[in-house]
Amino acid sequence: xxxxxxxxxxxxxxxxxxxxxxxxxxxxxxxxxxxxxxxxxxxxxxxxxxxxxxxxxxxxxxxxxxxxxxxxxxxxxxxxxxxxxxxxxxxxxxxxxxx
Length: 99
Fold this sequence. Notes:
The chain crosses the membrane at residues 32-49, 56-89. Keywords: Membrane, Transmembrane, Transmembrane helix. It comes from Paenibacillus radicis (ex Xue et al. 2023). This is LiaF transmembrane domain-containing protein. The protein is mainly alpha-helical and 99 residues long. It is 79% helix and 0% strand. It has helices at 7-24, 30-50, 54-71, 73-93. It is extended and about 60 Å long. The model has no long low-confidence stretch (mean pLDDT 83).
């Protein structure tokens, strides 16, 4: 099989189609299916930008990005909490110059 630039897209489409079929046949893929729509919107927006349709491309990327950020808000909160803890420990480790 000759490798070209369309193989990645073909494999992605096959994977997404398989996820949709598994969901329809009763295999619980609800968590993954929740991310499928925003990622597809971002992908279609990128494709629109690539093909010169900048207005619709930016709109699709913005809506898909906002939706994906809302779905990932729990992970973002965890990352923020870890960052605050690390920053707090780094402040405690610093030597105080105040006498």
